[in-house]
Design a protein that fits this description.
By secondary structure, the protein is α/β, with parallel strands linked by helices. It has 10 helices and 12 strands.
Length: 323
């Protein structure tokens, strides 16, 4: 009886979120309802990730309560509390930053609702608050970016490489790990020097602002730009051009994500390397949610396979990226 009432409440809530007309009568509810809090809409990566999760939920017959937090942690916490109040079967969310989740996740645990992290990770001493984390190995992405830069410096026989770094959202996993992987890799090469690291918050507008500032300060003494995502790179490139330098030639440009627009700019020669970070995490999420609902074991960490694209490769046959 409780289960029936719960399903009806969930269906009504799903309808409200999906904007169903009042006259439409819910027929039969989905077996599994997943509450997902997306962190925002800041990039092509993020939009691709949201679209993939919506598509896979539909294909799998999973009821999705999707909430967008507009880049505010407090909105994500409020969304998770609503999911708990609705008694969803599984909660998933993409945490904007790593710290500050223990209280709300303890509430989910007390309610007996398993929680899946999608994309970014959290930092907590209570490992049992989370059932699994589905997302990229951001450290490895930083390593691939660093390794590319070393190969490129070798190919160009450079004696020193002055690097500027445009980082993603402060205290987020991709910002921390992409920086750490890159730094650890270039630390082995004494030609490499990061002359300044600035925060671009994963936004195109901020990427442009950061690059304008860097060009004014260092001009063409910059040898390489390491940008933590495509959006910021796409914002930075016109600023390099406006200052009279040629991106991809006068400066080595390295980006992360691998969305279509950045790949097109790579093909034009204005970006030298794009490390892939796939947003297509929907299927893994639905599979994990189903297993958790059925009381089965899931892997604690699931990393998708990722590669990189660069000016060392023939990219003419590359399939459309889908984001
Ligand atoms: O690289 C960036 C997005 O967390 C991996 O967030 C994600 C990052 C992605 O805004 O474009």
């Amino acid at each position: 009886m409780f289960n029936r009432i719960r399903k009806i409440i969930l269906l009504l809530a799903l309808c409200m979120l999906a904007g169903c007309g009042a006259k439409e009568e819910p027929q039969q509810g989905p077996e599994l309802v997943l509450g997902f809090s997306q962190l925002g809409t800041e990039s092509a990566w993020r939009s691709g990730n949201s679209a993939d999760i919506e598509k896979k939920a539909e294909e799998c017959g999973i009821g999705l309560m999707f909430e967008n937090a507009n880049r505010k942690q407090e909105n994500q916490i409020a969304a998770i509390r609503r999911f708990i109040a609705y008694h969803v079967d599984v909660i998933a969310f993409s945490p904007i930053v790593e710290e500050g989740w223990d209280n709300v996740l303890s509430e989910a645990k007390e309610a007996g609702i398993p929680v899946i992290l999608v994309d970014r990770d959290i930092s907590t001493r209570k490992a049992d608050l989370i059932s699994c984390h589905i997302g990229a190995d951001f450290y490895q992405e930083g390593v691939m970016a660093g390794e590319y830069l070393i190969r490129k410096a070798d190919a160009l026989e450079m004696e020193s490489v002055k690097i500027v770094e445009i980082t993603g959202t402060e205290d987020s996993t991709p910002m921390r790990q992409r920086q750490a992987g890159f730094m650890d890799t270039i630390a082995e090469d004494e030609r490499m020097e990061i002359i300044e690291s600035v925060n671009g918050d994963f936004l195109k507008s901020r990427g442009a602002e950061c690059m304008r500032y860097l060009m004014e300060k260092y001009g063409d003494s910059i040898d390489a730009v390491y940008s933590h995502n495509d959006e910021m790179t796409l914002g930075a490139i016109p600023e390099i051009e406006k200052a009279g330098a040629v991106p991809g030639q006068d400066m080595i440009i390295i980006s992360i994500d691998g969305g279509q627009e950045a790949i097109d700019v790579l093909k034009q020669g204005k970006i030298n390397c794009v490390v892939e970070c796939t947003p297509m995490l929907g299927q893994e999420l639905m599979d994990a949610a189903k297993k958790l609902e059925a009381g089965e074991e899931v892997d604690r960490v699931i990393h998708p396979e990722e590669k990189y694209f660069s000016d060392e490769m023939d990219l003419s046959g590359l399939a459309p990226r889908g984001y």
